[in-house]
Amino acid sequence: MSVGRIAVVALALILGATCVWAEPIYVNLDKAKLRSGPGTSYKVLWEARKYAPLEYLAKYKDWYVARDYQGDVGWIQEQSIGKGVAAIVIKKKAEIKKGPEKGQPTLFTVEERYLFKVVEQKKEWVKVQGADGDGGWVLKELLWMSR
User: Fold this and answer.
1) Assign residue 79 a region: left if phi > 0, alpha if psi is -120 to 50, beta otherwise?
2) Phi, psi of 78, deg, nearest 5
3) pLDDT tens for residues 50-71?
């Protein structure tokens, strides 16, 4: 665990952040800042794009501590998140199919780090929709999803 990540988690514990069973979360704005602490005066660690999936860790007031698919941890303001599942492609390419079966025609192909909102799940298949409205079905093993 990096020093920065340890500091973020330690700050969450010091401030008494609560960790309750919560819905998965994702970035719901075109861009959102993830910071080193729960406030706009804290350093911006990185910016995330719309539908970036996050793992909910804890909450303090209107700030969430979240982890991304690479394991980076930061604070994000409540107004920047949506509740539900989103996904990021973690393989070099992913075929988006018309239906939840390998034999279905490919609608389009996306590259690694492409972001989607998750609409539905059926066994090993996930129905996704991109920010542009295009969507279809993709194998779950090609994605990292909100938790």
Assistant:
1) alpha
2) -55, -40
3) 999 999 999 999 999 999 999 9
| Residue 96 identity (one-letter amino acid) | I
Give the pLDDT confidence score for residue 19 in this predicted structure: 52
pTM given for the model: 0.85
Q: Choose among 83, 87, 89: nearest CA to 117.
A: 87
Structure tokens at 50: 């719309």
Q: Which value, in Å, is the radius of gyration of the alpha carbons in the chain?
A: 16
Phi, psi for residue 82 in degrees, rounded to 5:
-115, 155
Domains of the chain: 3-83 (2.30.30.40), 87-145 (2.30.30.40)
Give the number of residues written for the chain.
147
Give the residue ranges of the chain where pLDDT is below 70: 1-22
